[in-house]
């Protein structure tokens, strides 16, 4: 059992690093910090990394301010890579591979490329948080209130508040167990799902005005560019969940969100409701993800990029 083996590695070593994907979401940060909290509670020495800043809404998580954006000049007995379908998702901190002889990849993307020395990929898990919960349980590690806060954040982030089809009865049982540690879950839900800054709300109004519908209103596309962000005093992460508004339209099966990240470079998010496997579409563009949520990066001018995406997507339309 790989989780038992990973448990032994934790018990037998003292010096760890944890890293997750760039442009981190609640699962990347939540699962990393859950593992971090548990390891330090067990007296381990741990550095926790991400290429990018922690999104504002996740800064309430314990030790989120310990996440470093630059690698230290150090070696580790073991490095955990969390929520990364492939090695490139680590971004410009990929040099961490040269700082250890033991990389452990823990993920839930079916498209995972198994890039590490030890790979534990459970595509039935709602989130990496759910896997970390199992890792701790199976190996008899205590789940403190701090760790529970991080795990709960991770799980509800990737399941849209325990609502998406990746939610199983196991996910709900785990959430229940985490709530029993006494965490303030209503406050966490409010922070994650019912809080917006003024900038975000202004940005949302601009983003919604970019809406375009195709294929009998079953495909919705919205976009955001640097100028819109600037006009609203918003940053890239402020737009991270806006793809949901495209998907939520009653007639829509596929929501597409195109975000300008650089001149002629775009990050695309795909969300589907019932039928389309968006991971397959993302993989056509060298991206990846899950059946109902996937993404990729693409270069070119905006109109060409949009046309290109619609052409590929059309092949999946009957
Ligand atoms: P989002 O649209 O929120 O950025 O990502 C949705 C899902 O797709 C997440 O599970 C994320 O990890 C995955 N994903 C997004 N972009 C990429 C990408 O460029 N490559 C891969 N492999 N997965 C991605
Ligand atoms: Mn995830």
From TrEMBL:
InterPro entries, A to Z: DDH_dom, DHH_sf, DHHA1_dom, Oligoribo/pAp-PDE_c-di-AMP_PDE
MF GO annotations: nucleic acid binding
Residues annotated as domain DDH? 16-155
Q: Where is the DHHA1 domain?
A: 231-315
Q: What is this protein called?
A: Phosphoesterase RecJ domain-containing protein
Taxonomic lineage of this organism? Bacteria, Bacillati, Bacillota, Clostridia, Eubacteriales
């Amino acid at each position: 059992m790989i989780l038992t083996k990973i448990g032994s590695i934790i018990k037998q070593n003292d010096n760890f690093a944890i890293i997750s994907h760039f442009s981190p979401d609640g699962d990347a940060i939540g699962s990393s910090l859950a593992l971090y909290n548990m390891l330090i509670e067990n007296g381990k020495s741990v550095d926790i990394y991400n290429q990018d800043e922690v999104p504002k809404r996740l800064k309430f998580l314990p030790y989120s301010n310990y996440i470093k954006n630059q690698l230290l000049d150090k070696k580790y007995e073991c490095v955990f890579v969390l929520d990364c379908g492939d090695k490139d998702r680590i971004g410009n901190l990929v040099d961490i591979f040269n700082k250890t002889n033991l990389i452990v990849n823990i993920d839930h993307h079916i498209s995972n490329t198994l890039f590490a020395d030890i790979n534990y990929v459970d595509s039935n898990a709602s989130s990496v948080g759910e896997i970390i919960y199992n890792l701790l349980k199976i190996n008899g590690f205590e789940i403190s209130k701090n760790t529970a806060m991080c795990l709960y954040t991770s799980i509800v982030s990737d399941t849209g508040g325990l609502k998406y089809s990746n939610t199983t009865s196991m996910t709900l049982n785990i959430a229940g167990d985490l709530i029993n540690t006494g965490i303030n879950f209503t406050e966490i839900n409010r922070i994650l799902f019912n809080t917006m800054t003024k900038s975000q709300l202004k940005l949302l109004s601009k983003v919604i005005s970019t809406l375009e519908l195709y294929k009998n209103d079953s495909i919705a596309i919205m976009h955001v560019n640097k100028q819109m962000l600037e006009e609203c005093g918003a940053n890239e992460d402020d737009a991270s969940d806006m793809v949901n508004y495209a998907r939520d339209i009653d007639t829509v099966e596929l929501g597409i969100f195109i975000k300008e990240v650089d001149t002629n470079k775009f990050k695309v998010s795909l969300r589907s409701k019932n039928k389309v496997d968006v991971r397959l579409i993302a993989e056509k563009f060298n991206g990846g993800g899950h059946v109902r949520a996937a993404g990729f990066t693409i270069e070119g001018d905006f109109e060409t990029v949009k046309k290109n995406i619609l052409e590929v997507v059309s092949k999946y339309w009957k």
